[in-house]
Design brief:
two-stranded antiparallel sheet, mainly alpha, 105 residues, Arc Repressor Mutant, subunit A, 5 helices
Length: 105
Amino acid sequence: MPDVEFDGETFSMDEDGFIDSFDAWTPGWVQYVKKLEGIDELSEEHWKVINVLQDYYKKNGIAPMVRVLSKVTGFKLKHIYELFPSGPGKGACKMAGLPKPTGCV
């Protein structure tokens, strides 16, 4: 697993660039991933998606399906893709510190 240093923190990642452990997530990880995703500034809407993903993962051990994420956040899928251009599975889950989703997220 490759390591990356960013802003004084070191993160271990899997081969797809997801953090290797949800417990290793920090706000610094979000700052690192947002640069990779081409996101300049994180809005309250970004954080709402990140928080919903993390809360769901803590309760269920998996990422929510897209329709669940859309329902809980109140955001249409199109808007989630506007917030996270690489999508809810790759971009949002990566930023939230979740493992790479295996299903339809």
